[in-house]
């Protein structure tokens, strides 16, 4: 009798703990309009491209003959380039955007998140801004988009900056929890309603070499922009794709533009041997490795990493 009553109390306690956990993690979609006040302050603007209202920032001298486009990675946003932008806009026109499926831009109308589709999006954006040719810089997924654009539309890309870019089969030693969960089909209905802020914090800390640099505001940005309506579904669609295979090597070897390759030595998601392979496969490339930095070196230490970019552009 006492054992049975004790089990009932234990079951009730477990239920209450689970209910409290779900309550704290409950996170429904937020509209783009509700997020703009915090994440689309000046000089943000929205431009219609391919049926989307694309969130972008266009800064620096408009007469720059060679603008630079900054392309963020998976689950990031244009804000990841704040430090680089501040350092470059005195001499260069710098354009950065939230890619389809991420940030305030939100999901693509056709739900197509293949690399080649993103490359066409970059060119469509350049057309809208009346930019004939530009330098492209990208981190992670954004790096893959940058080099793929150079392959598909070589006449539109003057040079490349690849920052811990995708392109070869991954040899990850650690993958953020959020990325792993996004690949589990049966969790999709749950993940549309639940998003523990602590999980986002853990994922961001995972891609930094020094987790102490991950501030509450940084976690807020990743967390709130993930909640933008449609972004969680877009992430699951994107994570289903497997594009870093042997075929990429053949494409990468065709890149003829001058290329700067930057890598965080402590990147555990796309480990440093991938950077070496980019350098081997792109004939006209320079390679710089940053000790003490992880998968997003442009965000973790913008002052140190942008120096190599300045020298390359000038």
Brief summary of the model shown:
This protein is an alpha/beta fold and 314 residues long. It is built from 14 helices and eight strands. The chain has helices spanning 2-25, 32-39, 82-88, 115-128, 141-152, 177-182, 188-191, 197-207, 216-226, 231-239, 246-252, 273-281, 297-300, 302-313; strands at 45-49, 52-59, 68-71, 94-97, 134-139, 157-163, 259-264, 285-290.
Q: Can you walk through the features of this model?
A:
The structure is a single chain. The protein is of the alpha/beta class and 314 residues long. The protein has a single domain (32-313), classed as Alpha/Beta hydrolase fold, catalytic domain (Rossmann fold, 3-Layer(aba) Sandwich). It is 44% helix and 15% strand. The chain has helices at 2-25, 32-39, 82-88, 115-128, 141-152, 177-182, 188-191, 197-207, 216-226, 231-239, 246-252, 273-281, 297-300, 302-313, and strands at 45-49, 52-59, 68-71, 94-97, 134-139, 157-163, 259-264, 285-290. An 8-stranded mixed β-sheet has the order 1-2-4-3-5-6-7-8, sandwiched between helices. Strand 7 (259-264), helix 12 (273-281) and strand 8 form a beta-alpha-beta unit. The longest helix is centred in the first third of the chain and has 24 residues, at 2-25. Residues 6-24 have low confidence and may be disordered.
